[in-house]
Amino acid sequence: MNSKIIDIILPDLGEGIEGAEVSEISVKVGDTVSNGDTILVLESDKASMEIPTEVSGTVKEVLVQPGTEVKVGTVLAKIEGDTSQENTPDAGSTEEVTGELETPKETTSDKQPDMTTVFADDKDKLFASPSVRRLSRELGISLQLIPGTGKKGRITKDDLNAHIKRQMAADRKTAVSINNEVDYSQWGNIEEVKLSKIKKITGKRLQEAWQGIPHVTQFDTADITDLDLRRREINNDLQKKNIKTTFLPFLMKATVEALKAMPEFNSSLNHTGETLILKNYYNIGIAVDTPNGLVVPVIKDVDSKDIVQLSEELLTTSKSARNGKLKPSDLKGGTFTISSLGGIGGSFFTPIINPPEVGILGISKSRWEQIYDPKSEKSFPRYIMPFSLSYDHRIIDGAAGARFTNELKKILEELVFLDK
Predict the structure, then answer these.
(1) 77 shares a domain with 38
(2) Do residues 205 and 219 share a domain?
(3) What is the pLDDT of residue 2?
């Protein structure tokens, strides 16, 4: 056997590409390679390319590193191969040393071509190596569904594997952890607590919602000083019934008025994604914190109930939620959700939309603030409530989001809904 050291040279990449960046090194010194094996992957602004070797042998030297910019004619690696079986051009030539780099022509109608270079399609602008594309085709997975974490958004094998894990977890109805397996006890004492079933299901739904819905959150405040006075008056009347109303029933009624004014917030996207279903009923989901995790029971027909009725129903529903007594029907049919942290604290937050709804209102803790009145040129203490509106940007644009928060603010401050 005649052997010699053969230079693997970067050939003409075509398509006007003079050079590219090394994104992956597929071999190391001492590895045995065969004709057609990939030795490295290049990434340019036009293409992702696997560079193979046309000789078999042992890798003696790798002359580039990930992140290196290489140009046509650059020696990439040195391989000790059997010259009696290779047809490699001399080292000074760049003619097809590393195999065909343009899309090969189809040879038969029943066989898919083995593409060693896949250029990003002008429509999807996807960057992925041929091996990733081949595997995705074999598994029937669209690369358009996978966010790339590589340089310039390149979809890597790890990205594809992570997507497969997410799909498997979805079948198990669990959320997906993006954390690597780590022995945390090496740094100190730990305790591992099993997640409740509710937390697993909720985690999966929240993860799907965050990944599948383009969220936008609008922040605002409302002066609820007069609302607080009305609430106190109602509570005085309810003392004999041993019922105490919170701000939540008032917020529910005010939200319904805002939804009536802007019906696209009380809608769902059709399963085809081509039509919007406007709902003429108002079922408000209320996020309830329970010992086992977050649940969202739905209060039906809020528009037809008064403050006292809503207060009684909220009391009963919250108790059932915390005792694990909710029925499946109690969790269905919502058209809009309210998540209130007013009793805990915080100023603003970004609530996650509860599909198939298109919006959710987050309520934070109200505070007394000195508000300047330009008419009297004096400052007065006012009770100010911060609130956050998250909405589906596929359905609702920023201007509509701002109009909704303005409308809700006006309704809460003018209290017209209480006189209906």
Answers:
(1) yes
(2) no
(3) 67
